[in-house]
């Protein structure tokens, strides 16, 4: 094959064309390279924001790309739409908060949740009978869950015996008392005698609150007490203190109609068969008998309230617990003519703390086992209590002939002042002239006294336990009790059939406590166990 030969001119033209063509492709490639680096750098940055697994080579190349701020500018554009939803929940919060306090928002008028007794015909003048208005307001509130019956401030209501039944009521009703409620003093209102004046029964979640007062006007009942009521047998050991003055002008004026009042005296405020009961803020005063009673209740809370009656008002217990459990009482002032707190049979898991007691008969478990009955009490704690001018401090009292047990009791950090007998166990309790001697008794065990300090006027310790069923596991720690006045006749500590432990020295010494356990102890029958 013959080879192609080019002349000098043709060769020159061909060489020039090849040089020009190479230069043109280099320019195009350079332009394309600059454009790719821009797009590549932009994608690299987007990938870097969405995924931390990008290649290291792109991370290093990214700063080299001048247009990199463009993706940064786009970031706020996508982040701003996410911000607006956040204020919405904040704005909606106030919409749900106003219903939390209906009594304050009604201005004394009834609303969908609040039922003012004034709107149901109550006069509030202290002389008109407002019983029906209270019944009607309750009937309306009963149909509404979490409703409130409002007894407004600035009014005085005369209300006869009344029962707020919850058999068919909704849950969580509040009885908001800011006014004053008075009991009638006409004998015919009470018929043959009633056990209660105001009763709340069979409710789930009932709260009595407010700054108001329940006044039982008990002075019309108290005059006949010396003839009708039993006495506390511990009074026989008590020497009257110098504070007791006949004709004390501070005592209430005795009622002129007392001779016509029924023999059965009512409790001022009673709760029966209810769950989650709260009483707070109010004052109960001058009850004909017990002021505040809980019977067959579960979940009881009493706090920041007051009970007030004269020290000589008979059988006017402050708070009475019976067949109730899971009870908390604290931060309250209790002044009455009997036990500040009385814990009866069927009670368990009771915690009392930060209570002021006096005048009165102290805080008592019992009396238990009356008329040969069985009594069961367990897990009781009473602590951080101040007692002034009371007959007893902390006391357990049982009748002869009873059965059952009291166990797991703690009395701790009790400050006593002018208390006749600060520490008492009495298994020979009798509130009448004489009682039959019987061998059976309620068994007491696991009773702890610690940090009981202050002054006494009669006897520091009185332990009188059953011969057949001695008290066992009685522990005393840091007991410091000093006589108030030497000129009175004082008694030494007394112990009978009481076994336990002195974990620290006591003031005064209590040598009568028998260390350990009794050599012989009656074997309890099945009837005795709780």
From TrEMBL:
The keyword Flavoprotein does not apply. It is found in: Secreted, Cell wall. Pfam families: Glyco_hydro_28. Residues 1-23 form the signal peptide. Its main location: secreted. Gene3D superfamilies: Single-stranded right-handed beta-helix, Pectin lyase-like. One of its GO terms (molecular function) is polygalacturonase activity. GO terms for biological process: carbohydrate metabolic process; cell wall organization. Keywords: Cell wall, Cell wall biogenesis/degradation, Glycosidase, Hydrolase, Secreted, Signal. The active site is at residue 361. Residues 40-112, 238-259 are annotated as: Disordered. Belongs to the glycosyl hydrolase 28 family. This is Polygalacturonase. It comes from Trapa incisa.
């Amino acid at each position: 094959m013959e080879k192609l030969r080019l002349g000098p001119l043709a060769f020159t033209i061909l060489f020039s064309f090849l040089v020009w063509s190479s230069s043109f492709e280099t320019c195009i490639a350079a332009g394309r390279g600059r454009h790719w680096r821009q797009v590549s750098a932009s994608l690299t940055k987007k990938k870097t924001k969405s995924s931390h697994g990008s290649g290291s080579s792109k991370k290093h190349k990214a700063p080299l790309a001048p247009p990199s701020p463009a993706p940064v500018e786009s970031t706020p554009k996508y982040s701003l739409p996410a911000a607006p939803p956040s204020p919405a929940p904040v704005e909606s919060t106030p919409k749900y908060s106003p219903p939390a306090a209906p009594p304050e928002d009604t201005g004394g008028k009834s609303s969908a949740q609040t039922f003012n007794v004034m709107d149901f015909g109550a006069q509030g003048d202290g002389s008109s009978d407002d019983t029906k208005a209270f019944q009607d307001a309750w009937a309306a509130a009963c149909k509404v869950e979490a409703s409130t019956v409002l007894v407004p401030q600035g009014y005085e209501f005369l209300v006869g015996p009344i029962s707020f039944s919850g058999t068919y009521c909704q849950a969580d009703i509040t009885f908001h008392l800011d006014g004053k409620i008075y009991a009638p003093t006409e004998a015919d209102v009470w018929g043959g005698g009633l056990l209660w004046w105001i009763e709340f029964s069979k409710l789930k979640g009932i709260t009595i609150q407010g700054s108001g007062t329940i006044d039982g006007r008990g002075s019309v009942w108290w005059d006949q007490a010396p003839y009708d009521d039993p006495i506390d047998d511990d009074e026989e050991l008590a020497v009257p203190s110098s504070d007791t003055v006949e004709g004390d002008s501070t005592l209430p004026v005795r009622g002129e109609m007392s001779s016509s009042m029924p023999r059965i005296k009512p409790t001022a405020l009673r709760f029966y068969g209810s769950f989650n009961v709260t009483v707070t803020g109010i004052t109960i005063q001058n009850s004909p008998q017990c002021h505040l009673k809980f019977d067959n209740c579960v979940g009881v809370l009493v706090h920041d309230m007051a009970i007030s009656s004269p020290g000589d008002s008979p059988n006017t217990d402050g708070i009475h617990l019976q067949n109730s459990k899971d009870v908390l009482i604290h931060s309250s002032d209790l002044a009455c003519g009997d036990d500040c707190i009385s814990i009866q049979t069927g009670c368990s898991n009771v915690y009392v703390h930060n209570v002021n007691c006096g005048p009165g008969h102290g805080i008592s478990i019992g009396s238990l086992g009356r008329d040969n009955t069985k009594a069961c009490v367990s897990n009781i704690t009473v602590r951080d209590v101040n007692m002034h001018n009371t007959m007893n401090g902390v006391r357990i009292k049982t009748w002869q002939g009873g059965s059952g047990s009291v166990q797991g009791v703690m009395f701790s950090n009790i400050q006593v002042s002018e208390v006749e007998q600060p520490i008492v166990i009495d298994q020979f309790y009798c509130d009448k002239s004489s009682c039959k001697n019987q061998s059976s008794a309620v068994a007491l065990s696991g009773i702890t006294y610690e940090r009981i300090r202050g002054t006494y006027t009669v006897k520091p310790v009185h332990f009188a336990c059953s011969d057949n069923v001695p008290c066992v596991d009685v522990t005393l720690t840091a007991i410091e009790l000093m006589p108030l006045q030497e000129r009175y006749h004082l008694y030494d500590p007394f112990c009978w059939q009481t076994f336990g432990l002195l974990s620290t020295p006591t003031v005064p010494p209590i040598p009568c406590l028998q260390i350990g356990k009794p050599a012989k102890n009656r074997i309890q029958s099945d009837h005795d166990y709780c």
